[in-house]
TrEMBL record:
Residue ranges of every copy of the F-box domain listed in the record: 5-46
Classification via InterPro entries: F-box-like_dom_sf (IPR036047), F-box_dom (IPR001810), LRR_dom_sf (IPR032675)
Annotated Gene3D superfamilies: 1.20.1280.50, Ribonuclease Inhibitor
Listed name of the protein: F-box domain-containing protein
Length: 607
């Protein structure tokens, strides 16, 4: 079947899986199902200058005579090329692109520096999404608000506001004018220098006309006026998503906490439909108050993003009704993103907080200084389906019972962390329906077998759709109690092809530490890690051919034991530097290797 015979919805779905194109100086995106595939769906056209945009407009005009509805092709227009012929270009855009639904104007573009009145915005009655960057002078801002009132179909606006010296920061009156000009707006993304709410503004907050259509608000401002949160509680009663990006908290500001607390105390209902809340803060003492206000109104949050990049000793902690110290307490949460970049978090507080989120299915935790046991985390999050961790160390409790309850985890992604080889055995035993495992810049360490030189990484019950290993480092410990380690540059990989997940095999910590699973009948694939001369800062894995693989297997069956009889486990290879050529892979045999044995994998990606 030709692409032109497919419904547009199917083509749109297919296009969502296409890899993103490189950033272009300018682009026009065409979407349609009535034109040949090469001229329609997601077809980008570079616009690197004024003359190219002019030529494209002329081409569209000429094609319209012989191809009915050709101008309807252009539905997304992005301009990032500087031009001086403002009026002429704008007139061409009005005539040749009457049906665009998405219009993006990037920073430092001519249309941002000239009043929007040079364009007759009434031609774009179908425009639904607008991304604009304006410079706040006395001429441009009123003209922009007037232009917005000419767009009856506009539902999404992304506005970046730069104020000049002769223009005050964005204030509540400006925001009111903007929302009044866009009565059907559903999504607002605002980046601007905001002025604090004045006493006169507070006096008329209750008299403001609510924007009932507004569903999603994201604003990045350097103001720490907490009364802005109260403004959105009054202005957008149907708000479902709120994203507040706040700058570093100034020491000379009080944030108007007392006044904001008093205002919220007089408000009976707020944020009754808010399911998504993102709080990105930099070193603030007020984060606990913001979350406490949301909890006070029983906000039905399903998604929470909490980020703190400050230098405080720990994030703000609250005490719930059970006198337990927690970060927050929302029983409806299904997805959480937690970032503690330059601040620490007490592990008991974290586990208690996660334990109260009984519906949690998606957790993304970024805490570079945190060490945690995977068993404690899974016990606290019993219904977790997706786990992403960027922490210092992830371990397995050596005292854990072999009769641990099975877990329904399906997706695991680890970044910038260290794990032991026993982690894989525990994960395979407890999470039998795991389907995707991603290891990115992860250090795997454990004790090698003295007889074979292999570090066992066994996952006999795991049948993955995807196993991704990117920039993974392998280390051999001298002993379980001695953390002196040596780098290994060889990896063997084999699939056991045992799809019976109901086996009576019982995981034991000592079994995985001291011996590998029964040797499979198939020969493993062998990979070698080295530093490329072309990319000396990035490791490269390459696959050994059949003869090299046979040589490697023979070495570890015979010569490794001889080597171990005359030298220590680490020997003299501890301080070897990685080779910069794969031709010297035999020199890395003395380091030993990591042996991955897994039930099955559809896609194994090693980079």
């Amino acid at each position: 079947m030709l692409a032109t015979q497919l419904p547009f919805e199917i083509l749109f779905h297919i296009a969502s899986f296409l890899p993103p194109k490189e950033k272009r100086i300018g682009s026009v995106v065409c979407r349609t199902w009535s034109q040949p595939f090469e001229e329609s769906l997601w077809n980008p056209i570079d616009i690197k200058g004024n003359w190219q945009l002019w030529a494209l407009c002329e081409k569209m005009s000429g094609s319209a005579e012989s191809n009915r509805g050709y101008r309807q092709l252009i539905q997304e227009l992005t301009l990032s090329a500087y031009s001086v012929s403002v009026a002429g270009i704008c007139r061409l855009m009005e005539q040749r692109f009457p049906s665009i639904k998405s219009f993006c104007v990037e920073k430092d573009i001519w249309l941002c520096r000239y009043p929007p009145s040079v364009t007759d915005w009434r031609h774009w009655k179908s425009l639904k999404q607008l991304s604009f960057h304006i410079y706040g002078d006395k001429t441009t801002v009123p003209a922009f608000f007037s232009a917005l009132s000419c767009l009856p179909a506009l539902t999404q606006l992304k506005l970046t506001y730069d104020s000049f010296k002769d223009r005050e920061p964005f204030c509540m009156d400006d925001l009111e004018t903007l929302l009044t000009s866009t009565p059907h707006l559903k999504t607002l993304l605002l980046t601007a220098k905001m002025r604090d709410i004045s006493q006169e503004d507070i006096a008329r907050l209750r008299d403001l006309k609510p924007s009932n259509q507004l569903m999603c608000v994201s604003f990045e401002i350097p103001s720490w006026d907490l009364r802005w949160l109260y403004y959105w509680a009054i202005k957008a009663p149907n708000l479902s998503s709120l994203d507040w990006k706040l700058m570093k908290y100034p020491s000379d500001k009080k944030g108007h906490l007392d006044e904001a607390t008093s205002l919220f105390g007089s408000l009976k209902n707020a944020f009754q439909k808010t399911e998504c809340f993102k709080l990105n803060i930099l070193d603030s003492p007020f984060s606990s108050h913001i979350l406490d206000w949301l909890r006070h109104y029983d906000t039905p949050l399903k998604y929470l993003e909490y980020s703190t990049d400050g230098e405080a000793d720990e994030p703000a902690i609250i005490t719930d009704g059970k006198s337990e110290r927690v970060l927050f307490s929302f029983g409806c949460l299904e997805s959480i993103i937690l970032r503690f970049i330059n601040s620490s978090i007490e592990l008991p507080v974290l586990l208690t907080t996660l334990g109260q989120c009984t519906l949690l299915v998606d957790l993304n935790l970024i805490a570079p200084e945190l060490a945690i046991d995977i068993d404690s985390l899974l016990d606290s999050c019993r219904f977790l389906k997706k786990l992403q961790l960027d922490i210092k160390y992830l371990s397995v409790n050596p005292k854990i019972s072999p009769n641990t309850i099975m877990h329904g985890l399906r997706f695991v992604e680890l970044q910038n962390t260290s794990i032991s080889s026993s982690f894989f055995g525990y994960l395979s035993e407890r999470c039998r329906i795991l389907r995707r495992l991603c290891l990115i810049r992860v250090a795997i360490q454990g004790t090698r077998q003295k007889s074979s030189g292999g570090l066992p990484i066994d996952m006999p019950f795991t049948h993955l759709d995807t196993l991704l290993m990117r920039s993974v480092e392998l280390y051999a410990l001298k002993s379980p109690s001695n953390f002196d380690r040596a780098r290994m540059n060889l990896l063997s990989f084999i699939q056991l092809k045992d799809n019976d997940s109901t086996s009576n095999y019982r995981w034991q910590q000592t079994q995985l530490r001291d011996c590998c699973a029964p040797p499979p009948t198939r020969s493993p694939d062998w990979y070698h890690w080295y530093l490329s001369e072309e990319t000396p800062s990035r490791p490269v894995f390459w696959k050994l051919n059949k003869s090299e693989a046979r040589y490697t297997e023979g070495y570890f069956r015979s010569e490794w034991r001889m080597f171990m009889s005359v030298t220590s486990l680490l020997g003299g290879v501890r301080f070897w530097t990685p080779n910069v050529s794969k031709a010297y892979w035999k020199e890395d045999l003395l380091r030993g290797y990591a042996a991955i044995q897994i039930g099955s994998v559809e896609h194994f990606i090693i980079e």
